[in-house]
């Protein structure tokens, strides 16, 4: 699945045309056209993306994960990407599938 294209489609369907990018360090924070949004860990830093509506956030971490936040956006992905929950991070402890677990192993 092309998650970036799904994301851009979801945002476009909500009338969002411009996206704010907030960088951990390096490049300054800036506003971009939706068409060039490519969420990911780039330029050696984590990145947050949102818009003036502030009812969604996409977070790209140094662990190579991309987190989608916002009720409407999460629902969009659940409808358009069946099984996306299987890719969800499960907690801070590593497992073989790299999804993690919240239970402490004893």
Report on this structure.
The N and C termini lie far apart (37 Å). It is globular, with a radius of gyration of 15 Å. Strands 2-1-3-4-5 form a 5-stranded antiparallel beta sheet. Helix content is 20%, strand content 21%. It is an alpha+beta fold. The chain has one domain (3-87).
Topology of this structure?
Blueprint: H1 3-13, E1 18-23, E2 30-33, E3 47-50, E4 57-60, E5 66-69, H2 71-80
Helix pairs in contact: 1-2
Major sheet details: 5 strands, antiparallel
In whole angstroms, the N-to-C terminal distance is 37 Å
Rounded average pLDDT? 84
Large-scale geometry: globular
Rg, rounded, reads 15 Å
SSE series: HEEEEEH
For this entry, what is the oligomeric state of its chains? single chain
What is the percent of helical residues?
10-25%
Strand fraction band? Answer: 15-25%
User: Looking across the biggest beta sheet, what order are the strands in?
Assistant: 2-1-3-4-5
Count of DSSP H/I helices: 2
Secondary structure: number of strands? 5
Number of domains: 1
- The computed structural class is alpha+beta
- Low-pLDDT runs: none
List keywords for this structure.
globular, alpha+beta, 5-stranded antiparallel beta sheet, 106 residues, 2 helices, 20% helix
What is shown here, in short?
The protein is of the alpha+beta class and 106 residues long.
């Amino acid at each position: 699945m092309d998650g970036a294209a799904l994301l851009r489609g979801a945002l476009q369907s909500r009338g969002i045309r411009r996206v704010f990018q907030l960088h951990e360090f390096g490049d300054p924070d800036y506003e971009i056209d939706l068409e060039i949004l490519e969420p990911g860990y780039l330029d050696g830093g984590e990145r947050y993306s949102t818009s003036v509506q502030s009812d969604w956030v996409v977070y790209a971490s140094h662990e190579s994960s991309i987190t989608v936040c916002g009720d409407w956006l999460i629902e969009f992905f659940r409808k358009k990407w069946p099984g996306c929950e299987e890719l969800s991070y499960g907690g801070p402890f590593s497992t073989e599938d790299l999804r993690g677990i919240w239970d402490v192993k004893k």
